[in-house]
Amino acid sequence: MAFASIVVSLGVMALKFLAWRVTGSVALFSDALESIVNVIAATVALYAITVSHRPADDEHPFGHHKAEYFSAVLEGVLIIVAALLIAREAFVGLRAPAPIDAPWEGLAINGVAAAVNAVWALLLIRGGNKHRSPALVADGHHIMTDVVTSIGVIVGLVAAVMSGIPILDPLLALLVGINILWQGWKLVNSSVQGLMDTGVDMAETYRIRTIISTHAQGALEIHDLKTRVAGRATFIEFHLVVDQAMSVGDAHAICDRIEEALKADIPSVRVVIHVEPDQEAKLPPGATAVPFA
């Protein structure tokens, strides 16, 4: 999907620049500028996804999953740069507003580009969520932002043409730049949270706890559950308390059972279990089930 995204982005960029050349609209030019970011972002995403799929090695024993977050951060920065360029063009247009040439032809071309982007954005977001790919999801949301921008531009330019007020064109471009700036900030912030080893949400935490408790027969207690997400991978670690007289083999069998259950339910999960004797328990003895401390 990442390679196809490059091809789609190039096609959409060509259509948007054609729309700008036909009309001379500052707003359509701002929309076309953002499409350049889409092409660069799609290329970076392809490289990041390739790196993230590399197996663990001596220098990266936990894998390369976080590579996709760097792609998403870079994409957010590029969006911010595009927003600043758009703002510059908008201020130039505000000083000397000009009438729009062949508006309906240009708007039709831009409408086709927006429709192509909308379909592709939905496919990227769906595929990214399915494969737990931050780069694909970020690319999809960015393109969907582009779609919303294009729709706003089309509606605004229709109003500008119908009203005969040319200054609406650069004003619309300025609004586009502000919206893109906000979207870029949100994307950077989300990606930075991933780089900071953010844990899974509360619903996912509850599901993990349920899976562990259900398959921990023979253990006495589980505590100190920790999670973190790195791209496609979810890392889970916790302490498992067993009777101190239990053999290593029996304790290992419990760990295997829990790990297999987690792997069956959570894609690309990595599990670390620290086994402890009963004197390390944090809850009072006599529990009838395997509780969490």
From TrEMBL:
<feature type="transmembrane region" description="Helical">
    <location>
        <begin position="69"/>
        <end position="87"/>
    </location>
</feature>
<feature type="domain" description="Cation efflux protein transmembrane">
    <location>
        <begin position="3"/>
        <end position="196"/>
    </location>
</feature>
<dbReference type="InterPro" id="IPR002524">
    <property type="entry name" value="Cation_efflux"/>
</dbReference>
<dbReference type="InterPro" id="IPR058533">
    <property type="entry name" value="Cation_efflux_TM"/>
</dbReference>
<dbReference type="InterPro" id="IPR050291">
    <property type="entry name" value="CDF_Transporter"/>
</dbReference>
<keyword id="KW-0812">Transmembrane</keyword>
<keyword id="KW-1133">Transmembrane helix</keyword>
<feature type="domain" description="Cation efflux protein cytoplasmic">
    <location>
        <begin position="204"/>
        <end position="277"/>
    </location>
</feature>
<dbReference type="Pfam" id="PF16916">
    <property type="entry name" value="ZT_dimer"/>
</dbReference>
<feature type="transmembrane region" description="Helical">
    <location>
        <begin position="146"/>
        <end position="165"/>
    </location>
</feature>
<keyword id="KW-0472">Membrane</keyword>
<comment type="similarity">
    <text>Belongs to the cation diffusion facilitator (CDF) transporter (TC 2.A.4) family.</text>
</comment>
<protein>
    <submittedName>
        <fullName>Cation diffusion facilitator family transporter</fullName>
    </submittedName>
</protein>
<feature type="transmembrane region" description="Helical">
    <location>
        <begin position="24"/>
        <end position="49"/>
    </location>
</feature>
<keyword id="KW-0813">Transport</keyword>
<feature type="transmembrane region" description="Helical">
    <location>
        <begin position="107"/>
        <end position="125"/>
    </location>
</feature>
<dbReference type="InterPro" id="IPR027469">
    <property type="entry name" value="Cation_efflux_TMD_sf"/>
</dbReference>
<dbReference type="Pfam" id="PF01545">
    <property type="entry name" value="Cation_efflux"/>
</dbReference>
<dbReference type="InterPro" id="IPR036837">
    <property type="entry name" value="Cation_efflux_CTD_sf"/>
</dbReference>
<dbReference type="InterPro" id="IPR027470">
    <property type="entry name" value="Cation_efflux_CTD"/>
</dbReference>
